[in-house]
Amino acid sequence: MTDRLEGKPVAEEINAASRGAIREVSGRPPPSLVSVHRGVDSPFRFYLRRQGKAAEAVGVTFRDEALAPGAGPQDLEARMRTLDRDPSVHAVLLEHPLPAPFDFYRAIATLRPEKDVDGVGAQNLGRLVAQRPVHVPAVALAAVAIARHYRLPLSGERVAVVGRSETVGLPLALLLAGKSTGVNATVTLLHSQTRDLAASLAGARTIFSCVGRPGLLTRSVVPKDAHVVDVGLSSVPDPSRPGVQVAAGDADSASLDGWAASLTPVPGGVGPVTVAQLMASAVAAWKWIGRAGSET
Ligand code: NAP
């Protein structure tokens, strides 16, 4: 029997802590989060509704800002600088990835690290490497939060992270291996050039998959009784409803059922925890920015 590791109770715990942190501070306007994106054509619009609902659930003020049609990289950077200077804005999210000619890293670099709420700018990623994190990508925090909530084997254990992108797999591997985070796992990092997935996963007690390839993880590559945290999120045709797309993770749940010790579902696993974690980071930004002159 493979345990199903639902994200909802983990998200609820994180949201309760965020609400409590807001209640503790009186006499200030609530945290404010702004999500910047390219507008109607952007696939990012799908996430805005979720962000808005999650913000409302914890008491964060949320708004999205679309770039004007035809706006270019300089317009985006000017908009970001304005948000960075605006004392009523505590946290800013920028659509990622951005198509050329936009330069995501140049645009996000206009924000001070405390406002780069998803921790994806070079300063925040560097702080994570230096074990002095400000913000860490919410998805990486969410994957660790789920694993900790369900007490999956981490500390001192062999774990594997499949996928090494700078916004998902790499920060997750750093959190898992980190001394300052207290996780202290022994981490193997896999990617598209890994020659033999099964051989590299052998011996891993917990596997975090951050690829975006449905069906990648089957019982032929996952060790028996391993725990799987499925971060992958893809859109696939629903076989029972022609023309309808549904969310799918990297794990082949039918193949892993009765083989893996546990598995996070997609949807309903890492996704809801990620958005809760993002709101928790917005609350942290609000607290830091409210303490003018403080060192984060
Ligand atoms: P990405 O930038 O496309 O990176 C994918 C990574 O997977 C790369 O490191 C790539 O290796 C590796 N990879 C590709 N094929 C592989 C294979 N056959 N075997 C092993 N590794 C392989 O994607 P991302 O932005 O990191 O996102 C990863 C997944 O997480 C996506 O499905 C995304 O939708 C999902 N995600 C979910 C959430 C959530 O809240 N649930 C949030 C963010 C992202 P190379 O480096 O060699 O190319």
Quick recap:
The chain is of the alpha/beta class and 296 residues long. Helices cover 36% and strands 16% of the residues.
Look at the helices and sheets and give the structural class. alpha/beta
CATH architecture assignment of the largest domain: 3-Layer(aba) Sandwich
Instruction: Give the amount of beta strand, in percent.
Output: 15-25%
Radius of gyration: 19 Å
The percentage helix is 25-40%
How does the major sheet shape up? 6 strands, parallel
Bound molecules: NADP nicotinamide-adenine-dinucleotide phosphate
What is the subunit arrangement here? single chain
Annotated CATH homologous superfamily of the largest domain: NAD(P)-binding Rossmann-like Domain
Mean pLDDT level? 95
Strand numbers in spatial order across the main sheet: 1-11-8-7-5-6
Q: What is the CA-CA span between the terminal residues?
A: 45 Å
Could you explain how this protein is built, in words?
The protein is of the alpha/beta class and 296 residues long. The chain has 2 domains: 89 residues, 3-Layer(aba) Sandwich (Rossmann fold); 134 residues, NAD(P)-binding Rossmann-like Domain (Rossmann fold), CATH 3.40.50.720. The strands form 3 sheets. The protein has a 6-stranded parallel beta sheet. It is globular. The termini are far apart. 43% of the residues are buried. The site of NADP nicotinamide-adenine-dinucleotide phosphate (NAP) has 26 residues, from helix 10.
